[in-house]
Design brief:
213 residues; alpha/beta; Arc Repressor Mutant, subunit A; Rossmann fold; two-stranded antiparallel ribbon; 9 helices; 46% helix; 17% strand; binds 1,4-dihydronicotinamide adenine dinucleotide
């Protein structure tokens, strides 16, 4: 791979989508693809795709198109870690439980190693084989188990304080579901995920679509 150029946020956000498409191509037994075919599938121009790939040395396009295997392996290496990422979930309510049960995270290399809650009725139970521990054990657990990511599925009022605790304890990134755009003074990456934002965009599109008809 060539020396890395700094990726724009827009390119970065396209990478998981590329990996999804490369996975699908591989599963369908397709071994070669050109940038224009890929562009057609993904609703992008061929030049946009080649430009994105140039950040990573171009992925060795030869003759007719790219090797799907090379694209898939390279994108996996760019996005994921060989040994995977360790994840804890904080807040084992409706959302935390659903996330803990979602096996696709594991398939993508995100391993849930601990779940925490404050509710004594939940502590000691397991979800998908992982024990729910008391939030009081948070720092000790992180000190003993290298933790890459904390998923925050807590009430909004609790989120900032817990986020600061996990960041201070050495967690490397936060996946925040609480309805706020979480920012911390600590320099760690945060992804804020708001399903209702996406739903509202859909609502807006539906309204406009109806009006245009
Ligand atoms: P819930 O009430 O079912 O679960 C919250 C859990 O957090 C409870 O088990 C509670 O005991 C625990 N908790 C409260 N304080 C805590 C603390 N200090 N330490 C550890 N655990 C604590 O709520 P639900 O439905 O699971 O939602 C969780 C959060 O996710 C809410 O903030 C909600 O608004 C948000 N949410 C966000 C979505 C999104 O798309 N971003 C979608 C759904 C929910």
């Amino acid at each position: 791979m060539q020396a890395k150029k700094r990726l724009s946020e827009a390119v970065m956000r396209r990478l998981p989508r590329y990996l999804r498409y490369f996975t699908e191509l591989k599963e369908n037994g397709i071994t070669k693809i050109s940038s224009s075919e890929l562009g057609e599938k993904m609703g992008m121009t061929a030049s946009q795709i080649r430009q994105d790939f140039s950040y990573f040395g171009g992925f060795g396009q030869q003759g007719y198109g790219y090797s799907v295997e090379v694209l898939y392996d390279s994108m996996k290496r760019i996005l994921l870690k060989e040994q995977g990422f360790t994840v804890i979930i904080i807040g084992a309510g409706n959302l935390g439980t659903a996330l803990a049960k979602y096996n696709n995270f594991h398939k993508r290399g995100f391993d849930i190693i601990g779940i925490f809650d404050i509710n004594p009725k939940l502590i000691g139970k397991t979800i998908n084989g992982t024990e729910i521990m008391s939030i009081d054990r948070l720092e000790d657990f992180i000190a003993q188990h290298e933790t890459d990511i904390a998923i925050l599925s807590l009430p909004r009022s609790e989120t900032k304080a817990i986020a600061a605790r996990v960041a201070n304890a050495g967690v490397k990134g936060l996946f925040n579901f609480s309805p706020m755009d979480l920012k911390l003074p600590h320099e760690i990456p945060i992804e804020n995920v708001h399903l209702s934002d996406s739903l509202m965009v859909l609502g807006y599109k539906i309204k406009n679509f109806q009006e245009e008809k």
